Input
Amino acid sequence: MAGQGTPATALLARQKVVHNVHEYAHDPRTTSYGTEAASALDIDPAHCFKTLVAEVDGALAVAVVPVTGSLDLKALAAALRGKRAAMADPSLAERTTGYVRGGISPLGQRKRLPTVLDSSAVALPTVFVSAGRRGLEVELAPADLIRLTNATVAPIAAAG
Output
């Protein structure tokens, strides 16, 4: 697994968290990164989660939702006891997390942001999230993801 080191995988190794890294060939023309990952790895898209950066009452926050759905901004605001949420500017999200869009991991971010994981994750044995770059996913137990990100768990995904 040489050349796969990212802040996310380094954090998992440091914390001795059981995980699997999955690499796939990223198509640079793809804009639906999570769907591409689920398809390339031949996994149930409901087990593959995308990491989105939003602003809640002017402060950045991370939402982790299944690639099969979208983020319910009102639900995200409510989960963080805020009033309003909007998607963050992509360049601000990249600067703040230290990752590029399509490779933003909820783990090992440059600045730790409040994180909300969609409640559908807790029923799954493992979830897949970005490992910190396009074409790299990490599979881990939802409980470990929650612990490492200090995530709030709430129903924040909207159907497809």
About this structure: The radius of gyration is 14 Å. The helical segments are 7-14, 33-41, 73-79, 90-97, 142-149.
